[in-house]
Specification:
By secondary structure, the protein is mostly beta strands. Helix content is about 5%, strand content about 45%. The radius of gyration is 13 Å and the shape is globular.
């Protein structure tokens, strides 16, 4: 997965008020707060259903792990089927919800 493509500000296509920022230092912020993000192999994703696609780029299945600290917090896992200069698609593995974003240009 090309980390450089992810870095920046992204706006949800279904809600113009929802903005998510990914930074090169491994932090991410959205309207719910700030946390950390990292790429993780399929073998590290708990309860991953067989055949679940993450990001097959580079010949590896990678998933995004996002963690917002707080009492009782659990990591969130996302498949990333689309990531390019203008579009980011996240598939939340906890519910299968697809989150679609476009890059916010300065």
């Amino acid at each position: 997965m090309n980390q450089a493509l992810l870095i920046g500000k992204w706006r949800a296509t279904d809600d113009p008020n929802e903005v998510r920022v990914f930074r090169a230092n491994g932090t991410t912020c959205d309207d719910g707060g700030c946390g950390t993000w990292s790429w993780t192999p399929a073998s590290s994703v708990p309860d991953l259903p067989p055949g679940t696609a993450g990001s097959g780029q580079l010949g590896n299945e990678l998933f995004m792990k996002v963690f917002y600290p707080g009492p009782g917090s659990q990591p969130l896992y996302y498949g990333v089927p689309t990531l390019d200069n203008t579009r980011l698609e996240l598939v939340y593995l906890g519910a299968g919800r697809i989150l679609d974003y476009t890059r916010v240009t300065p």
